[in-house]
Amino acid sequence: MAGKFEQNLARLGISLPATAAPAANYVPARRLGNQVYISGQVPSEAGKDKYTGKLGSDYSVEEGQAAARLCAVNILAQLKQALDGDLDRVVGVIRLGGFVNAEPDFKDHPKVINGASDLMVEVFGEAGRHARAAVGCYSLPRNVPVEVDAIFEVN
């Protein structure tokens, strides 16, 4: 029987994908004591970037939120792998870091990263509430519009 967080994912219609291999010289997850650090995840699906371009010219805030949500799905896939398949070991989400590839006049970075934040709360409830950064930048790898990293408390 699936754990409570897996049941929340199923209720949301989310099936976690296979994890992506690192694109450079880093590891996708690193555990330190009761914390797991997940490297930045981009909005890829089935091994391909689902979104490329900038917020403010190529994508609306709502499309950016969908891209951030996909980043969060990929974070959860990496987390599940790091926890040997048991998301119920999650005590809470500590922090998300969101990077938004945006035009210079774009000002809604926090709204975009809400796509990732909202999913964490939907999956983990109150334990999904977290500290966060939402940072605008001129470019991201492969011209993706959003990248999100995370820190979790686990047992």
Q: Top keywords for this entry?
A:
155 residues
From N to C, what is the helix and strand string? HEEEEHEHEE
CATH class: Alpha Beta
Structural class: alpha+beta
Overall number of structural domains: 1
Pfam family, one: YjgF_endoribonc
Keywords: Plasmid
Organism: Aminobacter aminovorans (Chelatobacter heintzii)
Protein name: Enamine deaminase RidA (YjgF/YER057c/UK114 family)
Q: Can you give a write-up of this model?
A:
Strand 3 and strand 4 form a beta hairpin. The protein has 155 residues and is of the alpha+beta class. Helices cover 30% and strands 28% of the residues. The chain is built from three helices and seven strands; from the N terminus they run H-E-E-E-E-H-E-H-E-E. The chain has a five-stranded mixed sheet. Strands 3-4 form a two-stranded antiparallel ribbon. Helix 2 crosses helix 3. It has one domain: RutC-like (60s Ribosomal Protein L30, Chain: A). The longest helix has 22 residues. The two termini are 20 Å apart. Pfam families: YjgF_endoribonc. InterPro entries: Endoribo_LPSP/chorism_mut-like, RutC-like_sf.
